[in-house]
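task queued by scheduler; priority normal; single chain, no ligands, no partner chains; default sampling; output format set to structure tokens
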Amino acid sequence: MSQRSAAPQQGDRLVARNRRASFDYELGDAYEAGLVLIGSEVRALRTGSADLSDAWVRLGRAGEAWLEGMRIPPLNHAAFGHEERRPRKLLLHAEQIERLRAAVEKDGLTVVATKCYFKSNRAKVEIALARGKKKHDKRQATRAKDAEREARQAMRRGRDR
């Protein structure tokens, strides 16, 4: 799968990152989507409290995309709260939704949320096409990460002498 990043730019404020996504899935094309939120959800995101670890995208029949499983805890002092894990509508172009639908139906991929951030005071979420990793793939990724860390440490020790 090719990797196209829709990562936040300089000056954007990262709210949450789904670290499990890159461990559990092989990530492919990434898309930036707007989120339809209510006021108390935006205020909760501005405090930096959100959890994307179980977040995934459901593609509706009416050409809509919904973010499921994202947890935004309600604020204690809010006059009107919100449901923590309610489905939230994603704002994507119709052709992007059709590309996602084709990849899900044809290739058996899934769509997961990888980041949530503010861009020009608008809440955005980065979603990516993903293929599930097998247990042995996860072990290989862990071994490669350990080897890379050991190499960096050896280089650092060599520089300090």
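post-processing summary
- The chain has a mean pLDDT of 86.
- The radius of gyration is 18 Å.
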